[in-house]
Amino acid sequence: MSTSPTTAVIFDLDGTLVDSEPHYFEAGRRTLAAYGVTDFDWAEHTRFIGIGTRETLTILRSEHGIEASVDELLAAKNRHYLELVGASTEAFPEMRAFVERLSSRGHPIAVASGSSRAAIRAVLDATGLDTYFATYVSAEEVPHGKPEPDVFVEAARRLGVPPADCVVVEDAPPGAEAARRAGMRCVAVPYVPATADDPRFATAGLRFPGGQGEFDAERAYAWLTGSG
User: Fold this and answer.
1) CA 99 to CA 136: how far, in whole Å?
2) 69: how many CB neighbours lie within 10 A of its CB?
3) How far apart are the first and last CA of the chain?
4) Potential cystine with 139: which of 52, 126, 170, 174 (Cβ 3.0-4.6 Å)?
């Protein structure tokens, strides 16, 4: 295990760094309603947390028999999301503290997300996290989204750090699985409480089963550096 300042940390975005899942739900609800699907609720949305937007819409299109193409649905959902995200998106306080500590101590950091590049940029700008994240990777830039490891592997490549020297911070089981497949350690901070016991979180080196309410930047940094 690397304990040097060159250990990189790769963050998932939605539900991990920022509380943007409600915006994704509303964007999805509006999109589906425009195509006659009026019963899309939060419980159905949580099925797709941790899965890329394109993959999510591909499944929903099939399940609901929507004739519009995935590209058309994706453009509509991204449009709704970008309208919502600028109005009220907050970074989780302890996550912001963790990012600030990593940055001040020289650790390379990046975002790797299933969101579009435009959505990632909008969230980083809206929350002021753009100050810290010069590197971010969207699932639209790689062959496969999570649970495949592609976004994390590409983020490590852009940071110039071997996968074995990277730690992933994730809120969803598919992301934890992607980190494992990428050969990276993982900090698990479940967004949906019911997923805390998901076996895909079992391989995480550090877990906060209580989610963001339990996450502690100091404890995470001590684990990262082997000092605690």
Assistant:
1) 14
2) 11
3) 14
4) 52
Tell me: cis bond preceding 147? Omega within 30 of 0 counts. Answer: yes
Q: Which of 119, 151, 187 has the alpha carbon at shortest distance from 51?
A: 151
The helix (H) or strand (E) run that includes residue 42 is helix 42-46
Cα dihedral 208, 105, 161, 152 in deg (nearest 10): 30
d(CA 164, CA 44): 35
Pairing of strands 136-138, 109-113: parallel
Structure confidence by residue, pLDDT tens digits, 147-197: 999 999 999 999 999 999 999 999 999 999 999 999 999 999 999 999 999
Q: Phi/psi at 182 (nearest 5 deg)?
A: -80, -5
- Annotated catalytic sites, by residue? 12
> CB atoms < 10 A from the CB of 94, how many?
19
pTM score of the predicted model: 0.86
DSSP string covering 104-116, please?
A: HTT--EEEEESS-
